[in-house]
Amino acid sequence: MxxxxxxxxxxxxxxxxxxxxxxxxxxPQAFAETANSAIGxxxxxxAAPLTQHQKVLHTLNRFTFGPRPGDEQTVAKMGLDAWFDxxxxxxxxDDSDLEARMDAFPAMRLSQADLLRRFPSPAVIRQMAxxxxxxxSDPVERAIYGDAISAFEAKTIDKAAADAKTQxxxxxxxxxxxxxxxxxxxSQTGDRQPVMSQTADAKGKRQSDVTAASPEDVQAVLALSxxxxxxxxxxxxxAEMLSFRAALKPRQRLEVLRGLTPxxxxxxxxxxxxxxxxxxxxxxxSRLVRDVYSxxxxxxxxxxxWLNHFSVYAKKSQNEPYYLASYENETVLPxxxxxxxxxxxxTAESPAMLMYLDNWQSIGPDSLAATRVKRLGQFAPKLAQAxxxxxxxxxxxxxxxxxxxxxxxxxxxxxxxxxxKCFTGWTIDRPYQGGGFxxxxxxxxxxxxxxxxRTIPEGGxxxxxxxxxxxxxxAATAKFISNKLAVRFVSDTPPxxxxxxxxxxxxxxxxxxxxxxxxxxxxxxxxxxxxxxxKLKTPxxxxxxxxxxxxxxxxxxxxxxQAMEQLGMPVYGMQTPNGYSWQSxxxxxxxxLVSRMNFAVVLSGSRLPGTRTDWPQxxxxxxxxxxxxxxxxxxxxxxxxxxxxxTRTTVLQQASNPDLQKTALESFALKPADESDPDVGxxxxxxxxxxKGGATDFLRADLPETPLDTxxxxxxxxxxxxxx
Length: 724
Prior knowledge:
There is one protein chain. By secondary structure, the protein is mainly alpha-helical. Among the domains are: 4-41 and 534-722, no CATH class; 109-169 and 182-278, no CATH class. The chain has 36 helices and ten strands. It has a two-stranded antiparallel sheet. It has a two-stranded antiparallel ribbon with strand order 3-4. Strand 9 (689-690) and strand 10 form a beta hairpin. Helix 2 (52-63) packs across helix 3 (71-78), helix 30 (590-604) packs antiparallel against helix 35 (707-716) and helix 33 runs antiparallel to helix 35. It is flat. The model is unreliable at 1-42, 172-204 and 671-698 (pLDDT under 50).
């Protein structure tokens, strides 16, 4: 069942509010019929077969994150079949430009172990602080660890004091007032009492007690050359770093990073905001950069598809972000166009998945490890409580329901339990030190298991591999995966006959993803008028396509990561394992579509920190003015063809609205940025308090309002562009 959406252009209730789009939800029939009618496009089912130009545009909209200027001409010259076949073999495509851009994220090239060693997780810092461990000998790591431990201890003291005050204020016992402050604090904090390391010269300080460095001291550091400045930051003792950081103004936080190499920027960012923030931010940023800039667009799209299919949640734990880079680059990306079974095994063994769905802690009820825990409980109950124990069914259930067979795939709760037993012992080696997959025989449940009516003999790790093979070659899996691919690439309600042919290819080729994609691409259903521009873009598709259509220069993707939250689709942000929907309905609310319009206007006016657009250069007209002729050129550039008459009229009417960009700027509020935009130049950043939480907006407000930018933004946010 699909959702029919009618787009209308609304005049704003307030002066200068964007009068662009509002979605009305109507009866769930034929999205293309009503959506196209609403903006003046005939019902495609009454139209002639797609022209060659439309086929090229359709293919680019479905198998890439949207065409860039010149892509249509390139594909038309190469030929659709040749282009698609080349995209199926990404190893033949030069992607050196993307690789150069990825140099901005050196931490993402580290192994998991090196990543955790260089940028320790909160769990590591917490344990070091409690044990009073010595700091690393490496000067850089020593500075990062020392600063993180100092910050942890300051927060611990603040927490202890707050707990004590809360308890004191709420206590009604007659003798409560007789307690001394120290006794009250100690009684309430328990094992949260601050344990100060021997190296922290911020010992005993609360965050609120930190005295900011003088403006002269700050300026002295900022005046140093990049290398000297880096050495000065590294040499600061934790207390001095806390004082320095407390004194920095927003603009000065940017100045700290001026001229530094990518590696130095990471170090400085870790000292200013903590190691976890560096790792988490770069994992999300680098994923967006790949989507926008990779020449291997089909591989990028399929990587995005599988990362959503095998979804993990970045905030599952403080360790999860450390596994994301490896999950994307080593688990999913190399297998995105390979064999489904290889991808299934790779995700099952991935620390990111093992931690997200808790299988790393699953222990067979009668395993050797469980027996030892029971014995330990007799002599050391508290110690035994801290040891993982028990069978965890999370991965087994999602493996069958979401990864392979589907919710109606014919399995039972008994099958879930048996599969969970097969995967006991699949765990993470040294999880807090960046270890990889490990099979632990002592945790594995012995004996044979029966899954989907088939007996699996006792075989240790091979039991799990046998289950994965059974599921990967199951007819229900073939149909479930084929239908999901067809929903993503063809229609919200794909033709059953097409899904059946794709499933047959899946089974015949042992799950060859390339072959399944080829069956879909060469089908009559894929290029039928019924599906042309009939799907609403998801937020990630909308953002990436807007950046590509505008040929935007992204020098700092962090604001884009924050914008994805505003657009309702945080990167690695789906808490439940089902992933985001590929259908149109969840993304069609009025607020969501207006938020897209605000983003488009902010983007087109280069008001998003770190991202620049240049419409006169794209048009080849430095002095381009607002006119019907210019608007027509923008339509061709952005939409690949003419816009609906209602769209064109609105764009021309609103392009010179002096308040439209200002309103979009105020409406599209971002979370607090880390202010690490390396491409701000001399511009000032507008800080604006938003809502109850006081979120800070770092959108640029200093640029002149350009009607050409507004015109382009209106087209990027229009219903014409939001469909693919």
